[in-house]
Amino acid sequence: MDNQTTQPYLSVIIPAYNEEKRLPATLEEIDKYLSKQDYEYEIIVVSDGSKDKTAEVAMSYVQKIKNLKIIDNKENHGKGYVVRQAMLEATGDYRLFTDADNSTSIDQVEKMWPYFRKETRSLSEAKDSYFRKETRSLSEAKDSYFRKETRSLSEAKDSYFESEYDIVIGSRDVEGAVLAVPQSFQRRMLGDTFNLVVKIVAGFWGISDTQCGFKGFTARAVENIFPKCKIDRWAFDVEILVIAKKMGYKIKEMPVTWVNDPYSKVKLKGMIRMLSEVLQIRLNFLSGRYNN
């Protein structure tokens, strides 16, 4: 259901499976924060075939939150599937997905803005912004901008954006991160083991925490990366980052304040499935399935 009337600057995606109890507080906090900002926004809740009243609870907020959208999938597809579905349906210049348990509060998005590349919808707009210093023609702009042996307009565009990021992800493992409610020893060990396996099997070094459910993207990155994704369930975060890195996107890992939900459980069976999907990602990468 669409309740958005203007172009949003930020889209916030909340994947939800059997979240009727935790979703209300999360929705209220997100809307309370965003309603005080000076930009347009939308919130998209995706019920992933929930067996409880998640969809009904979300729908009850449509009249309270003017820019709320609900996607009610009748069948369970997996978190990766619904995140991809909502990210591609979203229309914001920037798109963030966050967990329904609110383990990372929405105000952490403020840390992302300094790192994000300012989204321009077309090369024409990027060109226009570069003409501000009384540059009279495309020829003059090109000549002045190509001084550092830039060979083409495409390369000029890339170098112009080289110090900014299209993807900014929350991390619980980098300096400055705060774990307000620490994880259990068992869960921490499982997480550390998984991250090590990701680095070894997927060949994905350089990212400390692939699994924090607080990740932001420019619209351009979403539209180029997410259609290539194949993983619907456990290891979709890893796949997104592997594809992004393959495509040359710069990824910024930033510290967040994270509150562990003691009722959230990670079972060994789920961890094994995640590891099998990481192996599948590696095979997809080697076989060229992410090339097109």
TrEMBL record:
Domain Glycosyltransferase 2-like: 11-121
Keyword Membrane in annotation: yes
GO BP annotation list: protein N-linked glycosylation
Catalytic activity: a di-trans,poly-cis-dolichyl phosphate + UDP-alpha-D-glucose = a di-trans,poly-cis-dolichyl beta-D-glucosyl phosphate + UDP
UniProt-recorded name of the protein: dolichyl-phosphate beta-glucosyltransferase
Membrane topology: Single-pass membrane protein
Molecular function terms from GO: dolichyl-phosphate beta-glucosyltransferase activity
Gene3D superfamilies: Spore Coat Polysaccharide Biosynthesis Protein SpsA, Chain A
InterPro entries (alphabetical): DPG_synthase, Glyco_trans_2-like, Nucleotide-diphossugar_trans
Localization (cell): Endoplasmic reticulum membrane
Pathway: Protein modification; protein glycosylation
Enzyme Commission numbers on file: 2.4.1.117
Lineage: Bacteria, Candidatus Nealsoniibacteriota
